[in-house]
Amino acid sequence: MKVAVWDTYVHRNDKDGIMHFDILVPEDQQDAAAIRKYGEEYLNDKTFTTGHINTDKCVFCHVEQVPQHIEEEINRYGFAIVELSNCE
């Protein structure tokens, strides 16, 4: 499966730092507001508080092929998250 990768940055309120994660959605998904909502859904499950995702910090980056386990997650939930830095 090819997916669109949305590069996302959010300020953490519990420490001086920026979270960096990718939101992966089906390649044909273009609705930026819906994609930001996926990111907010992910953030709501965190045990710490963060800033909100805004349009200049959540942008389309590229399209790539994903492994089977990520494809299954996208098929189940509509999106997948790849945590890159400061997400724990």
Write the layout of secondary structure elements.
Layout: E1 2-12, E2 17-26, H1 32-44, E3 58-65, H2 68-77, E4 80-85
Antiparallel strand pairs: 1-2, 1-3, 2-4
Structural descriptors:
88 residues, alpha+beta, 4-stranded antiparallel beta sheet, 2 helices, 4 strands, 40% strand
Structural account:
- The longest helix is centred in the middle third of the chain and has 13 residues.
- This protein has 88 residues and is of the alpha+beta class.
Short description:
By secondary structure, this protein is of the alpha+beta class. The protein has helices at about 30-45, 70-75, and strands spanning about 1-10, 15-25, 60-65, 80-85.
Q: What is the element string, with H for helices and E for strands?
A: EEHEHE
- Low-pLDDT runs: none
Widest sheet, order of strands: 3-1-2-4
Helical content stands at: 25-40%
What radius of gyration results from the CA coordinates? 12 Å
Overall pLDDT: 93
Shape: globular
What quaternary form is this? Answer: single chain
What percentage of the residues does DSSP assign to strands (E)?
Answer: 35-45%
Q: What gap, in angstroms, lies between the N and C termini?
A: 28 Å
**What is the makeup of the main sheet?**
4 strands, antiparallel
Question: Using DSSP, what is the number of strands?
Answer: 4
Helix count, DSSP H or I runs of 4 or more residues? 2
Structural class, by secondary structure, is alpha+beta
